[in-house]
Amino acid sequence: MGAVLGLCSAAQMACCCGSAACSLCCSACPSCKNSTSSRIMYALMLILATIVACIMLAPGLQDSLRNVPFCNNQTAYLPKEAVFNCSQAVGYLAVYRIYFILTLFFVLMGIMMIGVKTSKDPRAGIQNGFWGLKYLLVIGGLIGAFFIPEVSFGQTWMYFGMIGGFLYILIQLILIVDFAHSWAEYWVGNYEESESKGWYVALLGATILNYALTITGITLLFVFFTKPDSCGLNKFFISFNLILCIIVSVTSILPAVQEKLPRSGLLQSSVVSIYVTYLTWSSVSNQPDKNCNPGLLAIIGAGKEKTNLGFDMESIVGLVIWFLVVMYSSLRTASKSSKITMSEHVLVKDTGAVQPNDDAHLVNREGGDAEEGGEKKTQVWDNEADTVAYNWSFFHIMFALATLYIMMTLTNWYKPNSTLETLNANAASMWIKAISSWLCLFLYGWTLIAPIVLRDREFN
Length: 460
What we know:
The protein is mainly alpha-helical. The chain contains 17 helices and two strands. The chain has helices at residues 2-15, 20-27, 34-56, 62-65, 86-112, 124-128, 131-145, 153-194, 197-225, 232-251, 255-260, 266-284, 295-299, 313-331, 336-341, 392-410, 427-453, and strands at 32-33, 380-381. A two-stranded parallel sheet has the order 1-2. The longest helix is centred in the middle third of the chain and has 42 residues, at 153-194. The protein is globular. Mean pLDDT is 74; it is low at 1-7, 13-28, 74-84, 300-310, 359-378 and 417-422.
């Protein structure tokens, strides 16, 4: 259903062009809520920008990008000892500019939507319509961003990216913990209702697979990112996180926890453990000590140095997780578990609105209401006439942070004033990832013990 809604949202953007063919395409789409459609459209904008950013990192494009306006001045801010030319870094610098414009767009939208309570607010048309104009504004901004002089832009924007990326990691942690709880709640509920062995096998198999991947990941981290007589910090990160994963796993099946959260169990813990393993890998991959950070190419035996800046495996995994979380936050409706994980403030709430049968309440994606008896341009109905299903302003701020996070992920959290050998050796990003892994475990652990500690609060 999510794929269908995504296609319909793309068709709604095409409908802004006003062609008869597009209108016919839109009329064939199934109906969906206005709140869901708008969130998908903004997610589509972010995903399209990410596709463009990935193209900018393609090795074959580096020579073509060498003549972009900002590239000619890129040496102005680099220290004399840095051996770093634009033919190698232009992709990263281009990605910074793409996401700079997109971040500004979401921040401005967030400011404009402060205080909106219902779709009857005049600003609702801006939030839920004018898609053609929005996309044109972003495209125009992207073109203009390539004329921003380098000077210290990359260095300054990196710090914004690191702070914003860290804040988004916190939101991503909340959503991943919510996903773990929702997944277990759904599967355990189906097993309890049907008593089917199929659901039991699925629960057991998923849990075992997740823990197997976690153990494999931890083992590989010890093999490739530690040395018998050195790499103490890496050993600490890996060992400490392993111990914490064991603690939360045991906690999840304690009788006191099971009494308050009967559907809590090892499935949630296994999901959190495998994500923490990824964060640990991401952290040690930014270790400044080259002796403790061989890099992917050295691990697979393809050499120790990179001659071009592009993707590595960590970036690819981070990109996949980011995409899934963005789509999850766009399509997911808050459930019982959302109150425990605090994701109710991020996800769409059920407003209780009922889809009208008449065409007069269908929303025209250009910003107004469809006239009764007139041509239906889309099959999107307004479910926010009485109250908004989510905080519009916070949603845009969250997407601005998501933009900064994926910018840092695609550029490997690099430092612009580095040499190629130390490009991804960023101590600050290493600690950001490490602290994020601890916060993830703390958040999940809190969802387990909160019902026990806060006896007067209702979590279901």
